[in-house]
């Protein structure tokens, strides 16, 4: 599958095509909504009259005007604390309802809204506009097929995640229905950061190795493997099997320690460190069986 | 058309558990979900899972606390089931590898939570829901359960028998968001709705953008009654600018609430002289708003939640996620400053009426999790009781739908047991704008022409109707945009159907919702693409928001007493004489009908006597 964005150049940028004139939407003669008192303070009374300019990538394979990728400009009124996601939602709800992007929780846990913002993979809901240079350029995650606008095909990412036997396995559960397995606080601490992954795909998109080699497991999947390899509850035999999985041809040894995944991870997971640690474990393990 | 034994709609905690349970029972099961499972809002749950695991605790105490927390509006068979099944479900999660926080002896940690007589809230830092969701999804992958992800369910395929109790659900109609194709899903044994919350009815909510109550609205229009919809939980500690949740665990670990005058108002103004900050959520939310209304709020809007005295080590160990949330979404470092907090919509206690096996009055239609009302939470949910509800009732619904004998349910559904008619005085007619009986044209339930029609024919017909409906929305490309209508509903609900409720405001909301319904008659979809058309998706969701906003408001208007989360200015007492009963609302083909059924206070071996609820 192609892992590249549809071709695009600055020349294709159209400006102010969708900039909103100040005319309100045409109201029918008796507008039922006009009878509802809305909390205008909540909606539009931004004390700060500043606007932010967003340059947003647009593409839709079905719509003639969008089959050639382009950038649209949106001028969004700014308020303190406004995130890139807030700005995209504002643009969609007020200027162009066809503007398309994934989002759900708005609090950096569902992992839906990783995008390429000003040249870096970021989670839009936790990126403050005030931290960015204008115009704010919003593009879909690089190295993945674009479905429409800012939505990319995540199937390859999911396939890699699911290829590392990403589920807990042990043959040694304690006797008794209500007996839990014991796990030391230290061991829980050891795997803690790796369990924070929200499957946003930012790391995979930032990784040069993954960009050049579609079969490479990628940082998120290796981190998932780390989460189980390091979990003492699975036992030594399983750890052995886990190390075999990550040592496969397109496993840990492909990592070139460029740290780009670690740089972009919105959950601060030390991905590169985890990959290196697995390499060390694998070497120790191989020596043991030499 | 797709065919499976069991179809689960939604892939959060309840949906995943239901699917695993159905497969454990040998069923061919598939999940249909508008979000990929790991995107579900279960992942945002922070605090923990109540389960009586330890010596000194018992399921009986958990049940008692829950009944008291419900302000005696929970049904004992559902509450006792929750308390009895929760321990084994929690240990099951541990056996599936969930990364719980641990005590020094290596066992899973538990902490105190509001309204609990024992520290029985099992947790994983302040990210318990995330850990639970991912652990359960891992099990789904392991078992190879099929998921149709980014498929939005448009409607149920239900027979059109006169009485909902005689109807049967044969499947659902799904809309593939990525391709725009609309296809039928036939369920040989049953459909389990696990679509989660409806927080998008309000504009300040901890809920995700996706939480539009789709399953609740769908079941309602298909004839399943909605129960106790007026009971909406407002969580006392949400960040003012975004509604992001700050877990009750902060108060569980010892966090303190202060007003603008630096008073620890929960004690100093006598709201909860025993439990203080750890009183039940409804009590704390009202206290905060009273402080603000009486001029002791900060910036007339919020209060402070201070956890600095807990020390960085303890905070990092048990509440680390809160440091990130407060810094990222409010710009406040809680290690250095108190966090601003105010009440925000958090949870719907009401939902689709089910029994303790998760079954609705429509044969083959189940509901579990937040979209359902068994009822475990009655008029107020205790912190730490939502996650066990997902796994306990998700599992039961899955097992039952796949054929396991769980014994006869004690909770009657539909008008099968005792019930009495109700009435509510509204300024305008609620329900469908179009004449009664035209529910299908209104985007409502798909009914078969004859009850004798084959299940396959029924699903096919429902699919055709959904296609026609979507075509008509797309054809109206210069119609009204859904976001204006949605804003109007959210605005009136937040203004008029909030923590403190007054008769006139509630009536205003009924009128406003009516106007939103009228505006929706001309709703249209500007985006003409079939590919990932979120304009269309949000338009469809907005219809659900309107129906549910109305149901909440009608219940709130009918219930003229103060119980749990429902407070009425003119009726500031709990009225056990008149109101030890559930509010039920039947869509009734577009003319909503209000009725009541009694609360079940008789448990397995004792009766729960309503007492004054103080903390």
SSE map:
The complex is a heterodimer of chains A (290) and B (615).
Chain A: H1 40-43, E1 51-58, E2 70-77, H2 84-94, E3 114-117, E4 120-123, E5 136-139, E6 146-148, E7 151-152, H3 155-162, H4 185-192, H5 202-206, H6 208-212, H7 219-229, H8 236-246, H9 260-264, H10 271-288
Parallel strand pairs in A: 1-5
Antiparallel strand pairs in A: 1-2, 3-4, 3-5, 6-7
Chain B: E1 2-9, H1 13-24, E2 29-33, E3 49-50, H2 59-69, H3 76-95, E4 110-111, E5 121-122, H4 128-143, E6 146-149, E7 151-158, E8 169-176, E9 182-193, H5 214-222, E10 226-227, E11 232-238, H6 249-252, E12 256-258, H7 265-268, H8 281-293, E13 303-306, H9 312-330, E14 339-348, E15 351-353, E16 365-367, E17 372-373, H10 386-401, E18 420-421, E19 446-447, H11 455-475, H12 482-496, E20 500-501, H13 503-520, H14 534-558, E21 567-568, H15 576-579, E22 581-586, E23 593-598
Parallel strand pairs in B: 1-2, 1-9, 2-6, 7-19, 9-16, 15-17, 20-21
Antiparallel strand pairs in B: 3-5, 4-5, 7-8, 8-9, 10-15, 10-22, 11-14, 12-13, 13-14, 18-23, 22-23
Helix pairs in contact in B: 1-4, 1-10, 2-3, 3-10, 5-14, 12-13, 12-14, 13-14
Structural write-up:
The complex is a heterodimer of chains A (290) and B (615). Chain A has 2 domains: 10-19 and 46-152, Beta-grasp domain (Ubiquitin-like (UB roll), Roll); 155-167 and 185-288, Fumarate Reductase Iron-sulfur Protein, Chain B, domain 2, CATH 1.10.1060. The model of chain A is unreliable at 1-29 and 40-48 (pLDDT under 50). Chain A is built from 10 helices and 7 strands. By secondary structure, chain A is of the alpha+beta class. By secondary structure, chain B is α/β, with parallel strands linked by helices. Helices cover 34% and strands 17% of the residues of chain B. Chain B has helices spanning 13-24, 59-69, 76-95, 128-143, 214-222, 249-252, 265-268, 281-293, 312-330, 386-401, 455-475, 482-496, 503-520, 534-558, 576-579, and strands spanning 2-9, 29-33, 49-50, 110-111, 121-122, 146-149, 151-158, 169-176, 182-193, 226-227, 232-238, 256-258, 303-306, 339-348, 351-353, 365-367, 372-373, 420-421, 446-447, 500-501, 567-568, 581-586, 593-598. In chain B, the strands form 5 sheets. In chain B, strands 1, 2, 6, 7, 8, 9, 16 and 19 form an 8-stranded mixed beta sheet that branches. Chain B has a 6-stranded mixed beta sheet with strand order 17-15-10-22-23-18, with helices on one face. Chain B has a 4-stranded antiparallel beta sheet with strand order 11-14-13-12, covered by helices on one side. The chains are: A alpha+beta (290), B alpha/beta (615). At the A-B interface, α2 and α4 of A face α3, α4, α9, α12 and α13 of B.
């Amino acid at each position: 599958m192609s892992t590249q964005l549809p071709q695009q150049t600055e020349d294709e940028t159209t400006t102010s095509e969708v900039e909103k004139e100040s005319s309100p939407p045409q109201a029918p003669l008796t507008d039922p909504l006009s009878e509802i008192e809305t909390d205008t303070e909540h909606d539009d009374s931004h004390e700060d009259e500043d606007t932010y300019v967003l340059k947003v990538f647009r593409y839709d394979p079905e719509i003639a005007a969008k089959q050639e990728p382009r950038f649209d400009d949106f001028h969004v009124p700014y308020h303190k604390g406004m995130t890139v996601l807030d700005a995209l939602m504002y643009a969609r709800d007020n200027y162009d309802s066809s503007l398309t992007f994934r989002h759900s929780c708005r609090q950096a846990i569902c992992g839906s809204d990783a995008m390429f913002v000003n040249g870096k993979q970021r989670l839009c809901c936790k990126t403050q506009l005030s931290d960015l240079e204008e115009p704010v350029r919003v593009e879909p995650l690089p190295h993945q097929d674009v479905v429409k606008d800012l939505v990319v095909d995540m199937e390859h990412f999911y396939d890699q995640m699911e290829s590392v036997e990403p589920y807990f396995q042990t043959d040694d559960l304690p006797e008794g229905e209500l007996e839990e397995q014991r796990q030391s606080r230290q061991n829980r601490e050891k795997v803690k950061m790796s369990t924070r992954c929200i499957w946003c795909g930012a790391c995979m998109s930032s990784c040069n190795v993954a960009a050049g080699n579609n079969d490479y497991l990628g940082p998120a999947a290796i981190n998932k493997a780390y989460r189980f390899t390091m979990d003492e509850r699975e036992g030594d035999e399983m750890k052995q099997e886990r190390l075999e999985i990550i040592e496969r041809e397109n496993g840990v040894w492909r990592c070139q320690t460029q740290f780009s995944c670690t740089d972009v991870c919105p959950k601060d997971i030390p991905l590169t460190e985890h990959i290196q640690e697995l390499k060390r474990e694998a070497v120790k393990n191989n020596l043991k069986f030499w | 058309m797709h065919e499976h034994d069991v179809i689960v709609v939604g892939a959060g905690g309840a949906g995943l558990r239901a699917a695993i349970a159905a497969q454990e029972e040998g069923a061919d099961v598939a999940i249909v979900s508008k979000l990929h499972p790991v995107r579900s809002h279960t992942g945002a749950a922070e605090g923990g899972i109540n389960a009586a695991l330890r010596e000194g605790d018992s399921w009986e105490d958990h049940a008692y606390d829950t009944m008291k927390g419900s302000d005696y509006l929970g049904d004992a068979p559902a509450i006792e089931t929750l308390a009895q099944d929760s321990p084994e479900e929690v240990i099951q999660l541990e056996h599936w590898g969930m990364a719980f926080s641990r005590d020094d002896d290596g066992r899973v940690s538990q902490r105190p939570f509001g309204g609990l007589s024992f520290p029985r809230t099992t947790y994983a830092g302040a990210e318990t829901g995330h850990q639970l969701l991912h652990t359960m999804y891992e099990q789904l992958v392991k078992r190879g359960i099929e998921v149709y992800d980014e498929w939005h369910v448009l409607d149920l395929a239900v027979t059109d028998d006169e009485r909902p109790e005689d109807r049967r659900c044969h499947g659902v109609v799904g809309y593939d968001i990525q391709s725009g194709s609309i296809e039928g899903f036939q369920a040989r044994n049953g459909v389990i709705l696990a679509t989660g919350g409806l927080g998008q009815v309000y504009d300040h909510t901890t809920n995700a953008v996706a939480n539009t109550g789709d399953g609740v609205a769908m079941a309602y229009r298909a004839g399943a009654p909605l129960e106790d919809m007026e009971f909406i939980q407002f969580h006392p500690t949400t960040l003012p600018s975004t509604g992001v949740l700050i877990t009750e665990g902060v108060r569980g670990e010892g966090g303190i609430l202060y007003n603008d005058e630096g008073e620890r108002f929960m004690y100093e103004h006598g709201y909860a002289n025993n439990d203080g900050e750890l009183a039940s959520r409804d009590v704390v939310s009202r206290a905060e708003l009273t402080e603000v209304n009486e001029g002791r709020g900060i910036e007339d809007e919020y209060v402070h939640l201070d956890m600095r005295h807990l020390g960085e080590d303890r905070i990092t160990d048990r509440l680390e996620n809160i440091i990130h949330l407060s810094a990222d979404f409010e710009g406040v470092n809680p290690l250095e400053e108190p966090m601003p907090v105010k009440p925000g919509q958090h949870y719907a206690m009401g939902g689709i009426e089910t029994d303790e096996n998760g079954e609705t009055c429509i044969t083959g239609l189940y509901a579990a999790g937040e979209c359902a009302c068994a009822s475990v939470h009655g008029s107020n949910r205790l912190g730490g009781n939502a996650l066990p509800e997902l796994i306990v009732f998700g599992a039961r619904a899955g097992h039952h739908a796949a054929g396991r004998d769980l014994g006869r349910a004690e909770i009657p559904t539909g008008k099968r047991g005792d019930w009495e008619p109700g009435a509510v005085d509204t300024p305008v007619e609620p329900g469908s704008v179009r004449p009664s009986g035209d529910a299908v044209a209104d985007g409502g339930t798909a009914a078969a022409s004859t009850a004798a029609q084959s299940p396959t024919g029924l699903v096919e017909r429902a699919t055709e109707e959904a296609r026609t409906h979507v075509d008509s929305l797309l054809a109206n490309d210069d119609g009204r945009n859904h976001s204006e209508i949605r804003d109007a509903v959210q605005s009136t609900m937040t203004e008029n159907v909030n923590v403190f409720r007054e008769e006139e405001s509630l009536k205003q909301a009924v009128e406003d919702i009516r106007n939103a319904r009228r505006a929706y008659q001309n709703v249209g979809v500007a985006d003409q693409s079939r590919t990932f058309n979120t304009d269309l998706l949000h338009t469809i969701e907005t219809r659900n928001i309107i129906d549910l906003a109305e149901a909440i408001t009608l219940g709130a208007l009918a219930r003229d007493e103060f119980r749990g989360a429902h407070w009425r200015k003119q009726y500031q007492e709990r009225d056990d004489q008149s109101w030890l009963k559930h509010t039920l609302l039947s869509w009734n083909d577009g003319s909503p009908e209000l009725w009541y059924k009694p609360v079940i206070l008789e448990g397995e071996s004792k009766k729960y006597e309503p007492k004054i609820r103080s903390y």
